[in-house]
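Dear Dr. K.,

Following up on our conversation at the group meeting, I've run the structure prediction for Nucleoside transporter from Trametes coccinea. I'm pasting the input sequence below exactly as I used it, so you can double-check it against your construct before we proceed with anything downstream. Let me know if the numbering doesn't match what you have in your notebook.
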Amino acid sequence: MSPERHSVAEAIYHPIPQAPVASNAIPSASPDPEGDDETILSNSRVIHAHVEVDSRIRWIHFLLGCAVLLPWNAIITATPFFLSRLEGTSVKSAFSSYLSTTFTAANFAFLAHATATAKQASNTRRVLVSLGCLAILTFMLTVSTWISTSPGFFFAFVLANAVGQAAAGSYLQTAVVAIASLFGPSAMQAVMSGQAAVAVAISGVQVMSAAASVRGSDPGVTVESSKPEEQSAFIFFSLSTVFLVACAVVHTWLIRMPAYKAVTSRAPPQGRIGLHEDSALLEETSDDSEGYSYRKADEKHHVVRIAKTNVVFNVAVAYVFVVTLAVFPPITISVLPTNPTVHPLIFSAVHFLMFNVGDFAGRSICSLPRLHVWSARRLLTLSLLRTLFIPLFLMCNVQWASPSSTGGPIISSDVFFMIIVLLFGLTNGYVSSMCMMAAPSLAHNPRLKGRTEDVDVAATVASFCLVGGLAVGSILSFGVRAIVCDCNPFTE
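The predicted structure tokens came back this morning:
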């Protein structure tokens, strides 16, 4: 593959939205964890404790869902700008892998702390502080489009900024999920939709930007000027900063609503301390002191027990993202159009859009009861079957280091490649969302044995495993890239 084509192929890289948990249905009896999940649950009477929410609350949670992933989406969308500042350096070609690995590793570490301390913290405070930090970090990226620095300093600055955003995003994610869980599946679905929708929106904008930037140019020629990338990055970062500030304002509006005060006042005192605005005061009362001491003493044992109980769900959701991050984008970004009239930059942008549309559709169909799969074994099977996408992608027009050794692509249709990417995103969104919905559900997970105190722990452990899958997949992406390019993936 030529250097020009290589730089174009790695110019754009988008994230995979994460799916928070949903469904806190409470069964009237403790089911036997042995046997088939659906057979057991069909013999038990289930009571769904749903909280009715109005459209304002749903839209607020939709915006908060967007806020969780918007900064990261903005960073990834601005990858062409970052690459233009790293022109001529040895880290340019591997920058996407460095960025994704740094972010997901930091996200995994900080999410562990955010999960462990969730019950002792004020979620309202976490949301506001996290949004403020994200707004500041995004504004710093906005300023970076005006200032020219050395490539080495700029590389370190972007990675440090990514670590900061990963930290703030981890605390924001746990707090938003905790607050949404108070309002029930309706609010949680809004958060999930927001996370996926922001990726679709930004991908659509990127396609239009790519089309505008290559209009009238030869598909085989790479534009050398970095001015368009700087302008595009400035717009993305500026809008992201404004949006994050707006989300802080609407969250402040949310906590002043009577409905918010009503649901927080009904939260169980044990295991829900962090959900109350006056959590610090509650922890000091004699009524709660015994429960608080019990939680501190048994917290580690509790988490380990739930992790073992839900090991099938946890492995399933983690493996979904191991497969996704391992090949998307290291393999998919190296696929070039077989039609010479299609510009590689547009082809790359469209393939990201197709994945995000599929991911959004996969999450959306989880709202249809007829399409639900609650069985842990079936979900694990679906997760493992996604491995079959790897050879399918390798059959496409991948730009190998030695083209003569491959004999040409088996799948030479650009349309068929896009269909594969669409299905890849669809299965990513559907399987991951169903795992996250089923793992903490008392109504559909007999392994929890009807223990309400295990619901939030099961949810956070599953979320932790999801991010763990992202981290492992990002690390594996270096190995995948080494196979494709037959080079040192850290420097070339």
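Two things stood out to me. The mean pLDDT is 79. The longest strand covers residues 26-27.

Best regards,
J.T.
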